[in-house]
Amino acid sequence: MYPQFYEMMGFQHPGGVCFEGCPPAPNLSTTALLIDFDGTLIDMAETPDQTFVPKEVPETMSRLAEAAGGAVAVITGRSVDEVRRLLPGYTGAIVGGHGAEVLVGTDHWVHPLAGSETVAKMTQIAHALTALDPRLIVEPKPAGVAVHCLRVPEMHSRICKFMDAIRQQFPEFDVCCGRRAVELRPRDVNRADAVIRLLDRTPFKGRRPVYFGDDQLDERAMEYVVGTGGFAIKVGDAESYASHRLRGSKEVRDCLEVWSTPRRSAA
Ligand SMILES: O=P(O)(O)OC[C@H]1O[C@H](O[C@H]2O[C@H](CO)[C@@H](O)[C@H](O)[C@H]2O)[C@H](O)[C@@H](O)[C@@H]1O
Question: Among 34, 35, 37, 38, which residue has the most ligand 1 atoms within 8 Å of its CB, making it the best to mutate?
Answer without folding.
Answer: 38
